[in-house]
């Protein structure tokens, strides 16, 4: 027989029903054989039952694989397909880190960012990468750097790149590499003399592949620093945090392209080790597992209540986070799609979920997700934001607009309807009760993100009043967070703008 169920749960029921039917038939045959005293038929009934159950087990396994394949295809079909094969003939929509892609989709829908980006492009004009590089650095021909060109050809073939690669070097002991905005038929990779001299072929292969990854995923489309400079009078601090968060997520995607080219996770680990420590001699005994274990200690530090909010304005993830994210990719079914020598140990979904958790250690956390406590969190943020807005005696329109940007629309509308019936003392009492209810269930990072979002309200009207800071400090105390955090958030955000 062939199973027809569309879900695993229905298949289990169908399989069990088939087994019951086979068992009932066997019992009926056995009873008939025993009544007639036909011992041969008893044996035949037993063998037939064994054959049927074996066949059912095989069909059951086959159908599970078919359902999983259908589910995988459905997920893939529902994934946004935003990357083209204009630059390379590989599946970039499969390779990209979800966090990178999701921010790009969000930016595409954000009118403020798009308007600012349009002004950046209008004011800056097209950057002439090759002209600049020919004036400022040395072009490395195949004769000058045969190994580097061999690496370039390997990466081009592995990533199915359509353009040629041109290499340049500049004098610096600092280990650095970058990829300049490409032309239609050429990519420009520039390396410092330090990294070129002191990194092995395998390590440089990862570096070159990583830089090509930035081009393939069109990371040049959102020049973060230029967008923030151009939008300093229009973009909110939350835009800066999201742009930098995307910048960090983009590194995860580029790292995957680097591993595709290098295909040696040990070499990738040595690359990060050299970049982090600056040590390239044998004076230290590099151990990949020990280096990966540093992530555990870093995670503990980043979850501390005294977390430094300046992390949210960092353009690159900390190296232990990157190597941990790449370790997960190296073990994934996703990587196995590109590298036939890999047997995927974890699914794409499991990999992406864990990497998202890792990256959240440096990112603003999404607090409006549907969860058991989301409504209370949103209510707390609204009331806290309203108290901050009202601290100086005037609730400005810009403050209400900022408040609407950090609270889910449905909760915001409901709170605006009920706020008029509450006195300030009643609001304070409710805030105290909400923080008491949420204290146990909120992580330190969630508390920090609530306070981060509420800090936006204090300077939404262009001025920061001491009475508003006082309300923020009181909210921090209710959540058992050091008030220094508030001062650092405001200082860092003002620095960005």
Oligomer: single chain
Instruction: Give the radius of gyration.
Output: 29 Å
The termini sit apart by 68 Å
Helix-strand string? HHHHHHEHEEEHHHHHHHHHHHHHHHH
Helix content: 55-70%
Number of domains: 3
Overall shape:
flat
Proportion of β residues?
A: under 5%
Q: What's the main sheet like?
A: 4 strands, mixed
Task: Give a count of the beta strands, DSSP E runs of length 2 or more.
Answer: 4
**SS class:** mainly alpha
- Could you name the ranges where pLDDT drops below 50 across 5 or more consecutive residues? 307-315, 364-370
Describe the structure.
The chain has three domains: 8-78; 92-359, no CATH class; 374-496, TerB-like (Orthogonal Bundle). A four-stranded mixed beta sheet has the order 1-2-4-3. With 497 residues, the protein is mainly alpha-helical. Helix content is 65%, strand content 5%. The chain is built from 23 helices and four strands. Residues 307-315 and 364-370 have low confidence and may be disordered.
Topology, please?
Blueprint: H1 8-36, H2 39-78, H3 92-95, H4 98-109, H5 111-124, H6 129-136, E1 138-140, H7 146-158, E2 164-170, E3 177-183, E4 186-192, H8 193-198, H9 201-216, H10 224-230, H11 237-262, H12 265-277, H13 288-302, H14 319-330, H15 333-338, H16 348-359, H17 374-389, H18 397-406, H19 409-418, H20 424-438, H21 444-458, H22 466-478, H23 484-496
Parallel strand pairs: 2-4
Antiparallel strand pairs: 1-2, 3-4
Helix pairs in contact: 1-2, 4-11, 5-10, 7-9, 9-11, 9-12, 11-14, 12-14, 13-14, 14-16, 17-18, 17-20, 17-21, 17-22, 18-21, 21-22, 21-23
């Amino acid at each position: 027989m062939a199973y027809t169920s569309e879900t695993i749960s229905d298949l289990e029921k169908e399989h069990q029903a088939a087994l019951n039917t086979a068992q009932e038939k066997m019992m009926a045959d056995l009873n008939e054989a025993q009544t007639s005293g036909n011992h041969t038929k008893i044996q035949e009934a037993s063998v037939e039952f064994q054959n049927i159950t074996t066949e059912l087990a095989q069909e059951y396994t086959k159908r599970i694989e078919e359902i999983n394949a259908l589910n995988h295809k459905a997920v893939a079909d529902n994934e946004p397909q935003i990357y083209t094969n204009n630059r390379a003939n590989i599946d970039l929509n499969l390779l990209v880190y979800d966090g990178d892609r999701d921010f790009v989709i969000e930016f595409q829908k954000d009118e403020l960012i798009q308007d600012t980006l349009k002004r950046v492009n209008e004011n800056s004009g097209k950057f002439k990468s090759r002209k600049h590089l020919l004036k400022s650095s040395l072009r490395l021909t195949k004769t000058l750097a045969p190994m580097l060109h061999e690496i370039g050809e390997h990466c081009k073939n592995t990533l199915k790149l359509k353009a040629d690669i041109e290499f340049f070097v500049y004098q610096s002991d600092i280990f650095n590499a970058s990829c300049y905005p490409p032309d239609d038929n050429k990519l420009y990779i520039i390396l410092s003399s330090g990294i070129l001299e002191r990194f092995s072929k395998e390590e440089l292969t990862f570096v070159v592949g990583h830089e090509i990854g930035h081009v393939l995923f069109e990371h040049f489309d959102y020049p973060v620093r230029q967008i923030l400079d151009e939008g300093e009078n229009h973009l909110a601090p939350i835009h800066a945090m999201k742009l930098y968060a995307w910048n960090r997520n983009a590194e995860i995607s580029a790292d995957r392209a680097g591993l595709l080219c290098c295909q040696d996770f040990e070499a990738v680990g040595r690359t990060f080790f050299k970049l982090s420590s600056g040590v390239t001699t044998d004076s230290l005994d590099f151990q990949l597992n020990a280096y990966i274990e540093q992530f555990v200690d870093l995670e503990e530090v980043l979850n501390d209540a005294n977390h430094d909010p300046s992390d949210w304005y960092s353009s690159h993830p900390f190296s232990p986070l990157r190597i941990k994210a790449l370790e997960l990719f190296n073990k994934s079914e996703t990587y196995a799609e590109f590298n036939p020598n890999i047997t995927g140990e974890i699914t794409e979904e499991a990999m992406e979920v864990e990497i998202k958790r890792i990256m959240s250690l440096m990112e603003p956390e999404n607090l409006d997700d549907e969860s058991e406590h989301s409504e209370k969190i949103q209510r707390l943020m609204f009331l806290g934001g309203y108290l901050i807005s009202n601290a100086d005696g005037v609730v400005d329109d810009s403050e209400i607009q900022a408040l609407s940007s950090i609270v889910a629309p449905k909760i915001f509308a409901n709170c605006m309807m009920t706020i008029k019936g509450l006195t300030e003392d009643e609001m304070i009492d409710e805030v105290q009760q909400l923080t008491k209810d949420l204290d146990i269930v909120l992580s330190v990072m969630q508390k920090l993100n609530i306070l981060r979002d509420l800090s936006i309200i204090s300077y939404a009207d262009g001025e920061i009043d001491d009475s508003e800071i006082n309300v923020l400090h009181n909210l921090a105390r209710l959540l058992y967070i050091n008030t220094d955090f508030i001062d650092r958030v405001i200082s860092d955000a003002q620095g960005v703008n």
